[in-house]
Amino acid sequence: MHYSYILSTALCFASFALSHTLPARNSPALPPSQDPWYTAPDDLLSYPAGSIIRVRPDPLSTYAAIGTNLTSASYNILYRTTDGNDLPSFAVTTLFVPVSKSTSSKKSQGLVSYQIPYNSPTVDASPSWTLSTELNSTFSDIAALLEQGWYVSVTDFEGPNATFAVGVAEGHAVLDGLRAVTESSSSPACESSKAWKIGLWGYSGGSIASEFAAELRATYAPEIEIAGVAIGGLPTPVAAVLKAVNESPYAGLIVSGLWGYANAFPVVESYLLSRLTDEAKVSGNFTAGRNMTIIQIFATYPNVDVYSYFIGGEDDIFASPLLQHFWDTQGTMGVHGLPDMPMYVYKAIEDLLAPVQDTDTLVEKYCAEGQAAAARKEGGAQILYERNTIGGHVAEEINEDEAAVEFLSNAINGKLGAGWPGSGGCVVRNVTVGTDTAPDW
Question: Per the confidence metrics, is the pTM higher than 0.90?
Fold first, then answer.
């Protein structure tokens, strides 16, 4: 990329720095719970959804760890969004500026919002803080996107309260992150005539945020045009995952998920605490998980019967009308609108964490709704759904990475074609992709 273009980009963000309280680069790096930068302004209500509150160079300089041959800078952008209660909140995204020239049109620039499955009920697990430590295994995905010449936005989509798996809030955070990034290109220092070609990518917990963003786009952020969405390992409905992983190596996902909903909805917190057994109250085994990253959670709760912490066992979680309301409205894909952009969906048939039949059902629903919409000449679903015969949930995160990037490349560069996939509509097929054959347990 020409130096003049890099300078233009730097000036673009510098201009926002002047009006969005940009701290000095040598400001100390602190976890979000201790960093005053991660706070809402007193006048948060005056900020429209998606507007930038403040910007700073990433104090961890994560771009350097990913590779200065790929990215020239990383910025933290704090912006206004809307939580699961439809109340004003904020979120952060870490934006990586590419070094190489974009493969897109000279009049457009590629941007991918990449959602990492950080799956934790503590704000100190947010990617803007842990990306260079616990989440550095995702560097290869970010690098693959940067190699295309795209900007990459890595969102802290769980927000300041770490509302893990609360799909509506996460979808809002993704869409508002896109608003914030594209707003940052509208100053005189930027190429304001340059259009953005936008893609979304997320696996597992990251697919919750990405998929809900796709569903909510038309009603929440209709001005944001999305060229394509790649989502894998979909954990829907959330209740199905909570049933599937108990007493497995990934039982901690139940602890993380329950606390995510408790963080979002105080009534859920009150209910869960009221149903704890005396032993669980004394030991603190359940409550301890609220302040853990997902790596700590997996280390603490392997093969645990999480429902033994509750007086009524599983019934306290799955027979509760209160919790069922939230599972239905916040944790189930397919109920907030029909995605109106091309989608690449991928799933391991032997996925034990998030059973494949639930993704099958979701895709069938989308395809049926899409056919009805097409008959009314209102557009329709464009979905390629690949069911992988190799590996389980964990293996699939790597096995179809290359296919996801290829799809995003074609979508962003306008190479999918009007009839994609096939003759249009939906294509569902079994594939054998990748080399990781490991089962989940």
Answer: yes
